[in-house]
Design a protein that fits this description.
59 residues; alpha+beta; 3 helices; 2 strands; globular
């Protein structure tokens, strides 16, 4: 994440299979809602939509 966006991600341990990705406390992905884990590009696109960093080129 840091390499792609320049930001440091923080992992906060949850319980019960919770996996949420949040930006400044706002959820941008929820495993519970989606029923699956996100892929990296999906998270990077959501971060870009929040105005955080450009998407790296696909390759």
């Amino acid at each position: 994440m840091k390499k792609a966006t320049g930001i440091e991600a923080e992992l906060i341990k949850g319980r019960g299979g919770v996996f949420d990705v949040k930006v400044d406390g706002r959820p941008i992905f929820s495993k519970h809602s989606a029923g699956r884990f996100p892929d990296t590009r999906e998270i990077l696109a959501a971060l870009e939509a929040e105005g955080i960093g450009p998407l790296p080129p696909q390759g």
